[in-house]
Design goal:
Strand content: 5-15%
Number of helices: 7
Structural class: mainly alpha
Strand order of the largest sheet: 1-2
Radius of gyration: 17 Å
Shape: globular
Distance between the termini: 50 Å
Order of helices and strands: HEEHHEEHHHH
Helix content: 40-55%
Number of domains: 1
């Protein structure tokens, strides 16, 4: 009942309520983004959605225009506190998770949920193991189990396994716990950057930018 009907109804209700606040934030941070480097306000990334269908996920652009995409050896997205690809306003948005707010549009469109697994890169679809693919049984979320409890502190394999576990155990109480934990994690700025072992693998690439 919750997974099939109630959750979508709650997502739509929360999305519509949050829409005016998103528009205000869009005006404020859109101005700051344009002021810094005059590039586009939104970043649209192709991601894997429910049932492995692709969709365009919206974020406030936090990187410089035409910044290269860097991945760790395990396929996870590279991030670092001193990443030269990230703009000044982009760093603030990432640390406060403001860059994720435009995904409210994806929620209203039915492509995402407020709570769900982290949306993976479409290019990574062929790399999923059999015990990881279950994460695509549900809509990806603006926040989720791995984002709330571990953020960027896990390997790609560990994130996928935990996201698959969430998809098999999705329920309203778990989602409420994840939402509360998300606020705590964002407020404390926990797990902002990739584990130091993964970072070292990519430092040489970044120094060449």
């Amino acid at each position: 009942m919750y997974q099939n009907y109630l959750k979508r109804l709650l997502d739509l209700l929360i999305g519509l309520i949050a829409l005016p606040f998103f528009l205000i934030i869009y005006v404020v941070f859109g101005f700051l983004i344009k002021l810094e480097d005059k590039g586009p306000i939104l970043y649209k990334a192709e991601r894997i959605g429910k049932n492995c269908k692709s969709f365009k996920m919206y974020k406030f652009r936090s990187m410089k225009v035409n910044a290269p995409i860097l991945l760790n050896k395990d396929g996870s997205t590279y991030n670092n506190q001193n990443d030269p690809r990230v703009t000044r306003v982009g760093k603030f948005m990432r640390e406060t998770s403001i860059d994720e707010i435009p995904q409210i549009i994806n929620v209203i469109k039915g492509e995402m949920s407020i709570v769900g697994p982290r949306a993976s890169l479409i290019s990574a679809l062929d790399t999923f193991e059999e015990d990881e693919i279950g994460k695509m049984d549900v809509r990806p979320g603006i926040t989720g189990y791995t984002q709330a409890y571990y953020r960027n502190g896990l390997s790609n394999r560990e994130k996928r396994l935990k996201d698959s576990w969430y998809a098999n155990n999705e329920n309203i109480l778990l989602d409420i716990k994840i939402l509360f934990k998300t606020f705590i994690t964002v407020f404390k700025k926990e797990g902002l950057y990739t584990d130091s072992k993964l970072i070292k693998q990519e430092e040489n690439k970044v120094k060449q930018l």
